[in-house]
């Protein structure tokens, strides 16, 4: 069993983990894990070629992608700067000129 920290508000030992938050069932206090308490098994995001992606990278789209809710298409070779990695199915959050804010899957981009 993992060793979870006590609640910083009421010092309860019955805390539990919910995603990236720690929650105290006695007082209802929620807090984020600090660097010393974070899980080591953070997801590693890789592009279509197997290169590891990090926040702030520049990538290009390797396939024409339909934009949901629009009749436009994101063309192959579109350069996306300053990406941000997020959890979920679409694990890249970015802003693309002419399209605005979008979420992309890492399997459809390659690192520049």
TrEMBL record:
Domain of life of the native organism: Bacteria
InterPro entries linked to this entry: YjdM, YjdM_C, YjdM_N
Domain Protein YjdM C-terminal intervals: 45-112
Domain spans labelled Protein YjdM N-terminal: 4-31
Membrane-traversing stretches: none
Family that this chain belongs to: Belongs to the YjdM family.
PANTHER family: PROTEIN YJDM (PTHR30305:SF3), PROTEIN YJDM-RELATED (PTHR30305)
Protein name, as recorded: Protein YjdM
Phylogenetic classification of the source organism: Bacteria, Bacillati, Bacillota, Bacilli, Bacillales
């Amino acid at each position: 069993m993992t060793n979870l920290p006590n609640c910083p508000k009421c010092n309860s030992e019955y805390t539990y983990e919910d995603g990236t938050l720690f929650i105290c069932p006695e007082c209802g206090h929620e807090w984020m894990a600090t660097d010393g308490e974070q899980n080591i098994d953070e997801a590693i995001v890789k592009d279509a070629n197997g290169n590891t992606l990090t926040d702030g990278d520049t990538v290009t789209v390797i396939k024409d992608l339909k934009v949901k809710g629009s009749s436009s298409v994101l063309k192959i070779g579109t350069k996306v700067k300053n990406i941000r990695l997020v959890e979920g199915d679409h694990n890249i959050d970015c802003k693309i000129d002419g399209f605005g804010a979008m979420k992309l899957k890492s399997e459809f981009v390659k690192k520049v």
